[in-house]
Structure formats: structure tokens, C-alpha cells
Write a structure and sequence with these properties.
elongated, 20 helices, 2 domains, about 0% strand
């Protein structure tokens, strides 16, 4: 992907797009520091007047649509005239039917030109958001690099970037590129879009990299497991360490995401996937992260009624014993005592709670105690 900012059009304040582009050039293969925050307009937004939302959510975006209708009704109006038009209105960051309807009422080419200009040159995030909404109502493939770049500021622009990319030919590849460079809420939006597309080309990534360990993974872990046919992958003859490790993260996430997304209790292949993961785990070299994932899965299974685990009582008990048989091996116990790569506060919590409930015989500093 390559997008070059046009000089001389940005004014004294940096545009949101150029801000994203500069950070991406410094971190081309990873997540932007602090996901791109603070944005260039942060100080102005804090010191400026607060926007008032309509009391009726059905009216969100209606005032933006009025501004767009007025603009597009004037044949000679230029996109730059909208640069400051949305600063004092409440603007949703997700797809909005009022704004999309305004885009569909106007000339298609003007809508594209306006959307492109606003995304590329806006110094105000509301104006850039309107521009991205206009592009999300279209399907021009040439706008993919523009959408990807602004989408790197994913906490704000992620929902509309994902919406815009999934509508385009080549959208799955574009979303995969973005998914590897966003975290937090942005990752939720992009991974959910990949699941909605269900493209075969994204299956390998979804099975191995979708969950990065963030708590927000709970919103999409179940979608990934079902969309990517995890039960088929983990029981096949071609299983690699990345697949097994990611399966552990998925299962750990689904065990503790009640109220966010699909839990193990609502995942029909749960007993098959859990048993297969435990078998593959026993064949892997021990690491602290593998130990923690397995222990937290086993702790959940042991503590919950079997129907909350998607298993019969017999299946649940057998799977717990499979996990414990691995965790009690001397080389695995040595790996968790070393605790390499684990946050010290988390490690202390883990030993006091999860390890204690499973009677794994660890003291709060990770050393052996007298229980065993």
C-alpha cells in the first residue's frame, strides 16, 4: 500500500490522514503507538463547544444529512467548503442511515470526490468521518489505500473503514492488511468484518492470529471459531503450533466472555475442540503462555456446570483431567515457575487464584509449595 500526501493543501494544522500516514511510515508493520492518539485535533476538541446529541437515537446523523443535502444541491460547491461544517454536530462513528441516504441522493461522482477530499485533507475528525462515510457508501477499489490509511486510527475510524473495505472487490485482502496493524476496538471492527465476508483467503489468518490476547477479543472469538471452522482445523492431520496456540487463546477467551460474545456453552463443537486442544498441547514444548491458557481453560471447566461448558459432565471431567495431566508434568511446572514473558502482577494473580483452585502446587512467587 502506498499513499502520498499532496503538499500545500493541509494548512497550518496537520490533517488526520497525514497524521496516520506519518505514524505508519515509522511503524509500517505494526500497530501505531497508542493507536495513533492523541489526534491532531485533540486540543481543539477539548477546548471547543461540546456537541449535543439528539434525544432520539433515530435522529443521530440527520443534521449531517441536512448539511450534505444543501451542499450537493449547489452544483458549484467545492468539497473544501465542508471542512468546518461538522465541528459542532454530533457524529456517529458507525454506519449511519441518514448520512448514507444523503450520499445516495447525490451525484455519485461528486460524492466520491467529496469523500476523498474530506478523508485526505480534514483537520477535524468529524469532517474526516463524514468523508469516510461517503466512501463507505461507494465501492471504488481505487480508494482502498486511502481507507486503509485513515483506518489505522482505528479506535475512531475503524468501524467505517471496515464497512468501506468489506464492500469492495479485494476487501478481504485489504482488511487482513489492516487487521495486522490495529488493536483494541479497531481490531474488533476489522476482525468482525473479516468474519462477515467469510473469504477463504482469510481463514488461515483467522485461525492463527485473530486473537491477540486483549480482553476485547471476547466480542469476536466465537465468530472466528465458527467462521473459520475451527473444529475442522484443530482435528485435521495438518496442525501446527500457531494453530494450537491460537486455539488455546480462543478457548480461554470464549470461557470468559459472557455478555460479550459466544461462550463455550453456546458453541456446539466445544467438547471436540477442547479435547483436541488438550491432546495437541501434550505434544508441544512447554511455555509459560501455553501453561496459563491451559490452566485458565481447565479452571473454567472445573468451576462451571457442564452445560455452561458445552459438554456433558463426563466430557468435561475427562477434558479437565487431560489438561491437568499436562500441567502437572515437571517440565511444564518448570516453565510456569520461570514465568518468562508474563506480567508480574498477572503472574501473582494467576498463582493466587487459578493455580490455587486447580491445586497446582504453586506459591505466589511461582515456586513449589508443600501441597504436592
Amino acid at each position: 500500500m502506498s499513499v502520498t500526501p499532496e503538499p500545500g493543501l493541509l494548512g497550518p494544522q496537520i490533517a488526520l490522514f497525514e497524521h496516520a500516514l506519518r505514524l505508519h511510515q515509522q511503524h509500517p508493520d505494526g500497530v501505531l503507538p497508542r493507536e495513533g492518539e492523541p489526534y491532531p485535533d485533540e486540543q481543539r476538541r477539548r477546548s471547543g463547544p461540546s456537541t449535543q446529541r439528539a434525544r432520539d437515537q433515530r435522529l443521530y446523523g440527520a443534521d449531517v444529512a441536512v448539511i450534505l443535502d444543501r451542499h450537493f444541491s449547489q452544483p458549484d460547491a467545492q468539497p473544501s467548503e465542508l471542512a468546518d461544517a461538522f465541528r459542532d454536530v454530533y457524529l456517529p462513528i458507525h454506519r449511519n442511515d441518514h448520512i448514507v441516504a444523503a450520499a445516495l441522493r447525490a451525484d455519485r461522482q461528486r460524492v466520491r470526490q467529496t469523500g476523498r477530499w474530506l478523508v485526505r485533507h480534514s483537520t477535524d475528525r468529524n469532517a474526516a468521518t463524514v468523508g469516510l462515510t461517503l466512501l463507505a457508501a461507494d465501492a471504488a477499489e481505487g480508494d482502498i489505500p486511502l481507507i486503509q490509511t485513515i483506518g489505522l486510527l482505528s479506535d475512531w475510524f475503524g468501524p467505517l473503514a471496515a464497512e468501506a473495505l468489506q464492500r469492495r472487490r479485494g476487501g478481504a485482502e485489504a482488511l487482513l492488511w489492516l487487521a495486522e496493524r490495529v488493536a483494541g476496538w479497531g481490531r474488533v471492527y476489522v476482525v468482525e468484518a473479516l468474519c462477515r465476508i467469510g473469504a477463504a483467503g482469510s481463514r488461515a489468518w483467522l485461525l492463527r492470529h485473530a486473537c491477540d490476547g486483549d480482553y476485547l477479543n471476547g466480542y469476536f472469538a466465537g465468530k472466528v471459531a465458527t467462521t473459520a471452522h475451527l473444529h475442522e482445523a484443530i482435528t485435521s492431520t495438518d496442525v501446527d503450533d500457531d494453530l494450537v496456540d491460537h486455539t488455546g487463546r480462543l478457548l480461554r477467551t470464549m470461557a470468559d466472555c459472557d455478555g460479550m460474545g459466544m461462550t463455550l456453552g453456546h458453541y456446539p463443537p466445544a467438547p471436540v475442540v477442547l479435547a483436541a486442544h488438550a491432546v495437541h498441547l501434550a505434544r508441544q514444548p512447554p511455555t509459560a503462555n501455553r501453561y496459563v491458557d491451559a490452566a485458565m481453560i481447565a479452571d473454567y471447566l472445573a468451576a462451571k456446570p457442564s452445560n455452561r461448558c458445552g459438554c456433558t459432565a463426563e466430557q468435561r471431567d475427562r477434558i479437565v483431567q487431560q489438561y491437568l495431566a499436562v500441567l502437572e508434568q515437571p517440565d511444564w511446572r518448570a516453565a510456569i515457575r520461570a514465568g518468562r514473558g508474563l506480567n508480574s502482577d498477572f503472574f501473582a494473580w494467576f498463582t493466587r487464584h487459578t493455580a490455587a483452585r486447580l491445586r497446582l502446587g504453586m506459591s505466589s512467587d511461582g515456586t513449589e509449595n508443600d501441597e504436592r
